Amino acid sequence: MSEFNQEEFNQFVLNNNVIGFFEEPKILKSKRKSCWYVNWRLNDVFLIEQLSDHVINFTKSLGLNPDCFYGVPEGATKLGVITQFKWAKRSSNYGKGSHTLPMGRGKSKEHGEAKDRYFIGEPQGKIIVVEDVTTTGGSLIDIIGDLKETGKEIVGAFGLVNRMELTPIIGQDNEETVEKFRRSFERATGRKYSEAMSVEEAVRETGIPYHALGNANLLLKEAYKILNPGEKITRSIEQEFKEYGVERLTFT
Predict the structure, then answer these.
(1) How confident is the model at residue 115 (pLDDT cuts 50, 70, 90)?
(2) Which CATH number fits the domain that encloses residue 96?
(3) Following CA atoms 231, 235, 238, 242 in sequence, which dihedral angle do they give, to the nearest 10 degrees?
(4) Which domain holds residue 127?
(5) Residue 26 domain-assigned?
(6) How far apart are CA 64 and CA 60, in angstroms?
């Protein structure tokens, strides 16, 4: 692969069962119930290497030239490390001291300098933050806040798949989820969080452009054709998008 191909990426997602359906709704990290999932927890070097190529090609297609890829802990940690390794090796200035190999802590330390509290190996230079899946965008915005606190230059934020859901809805979503997101949003933006918005809009409020390699609205329809989950599940998912979606989704 040398150029990002949207159809090839979508097929990679579908062929490797990244998207699937639950017989009964499950509670996600966002505390929302859902009958479908996006699971990027690949434990296969061959597949993660292929995925990293998609990320690198996507980066080039956007005309970005970062110094560093940083995976949001912990779902995108392995991808961030492997993508950074490959990107560095292919760089014309690759050599001793040319690139860092950063990794974030799943839980920040309570003491020490910010660079030690948040990172095991600090990201440097122009940074692209990579998240495996964005639902409400809370984890991504929290990491952006960490990076901004340490004075880092972020040139882009990637989501492998955007679930196309709104950020936490005040008065509708779990109160703890709303409050946690509010703190992260206000820390990263310096602005008051008062209403739900798309993840793309929320990240843009931090001053960082957001780009998704895959869009759930399209991928779900393709997964539906392959897996045929049945009427009950599809109606449930349509209701999910009616309540939480950036836009409505229908399968028929």
Answers:
(1) confident
(2) 3.40.50.2020
(3) 170
(4) 6-244
(5) yes
(6) 6
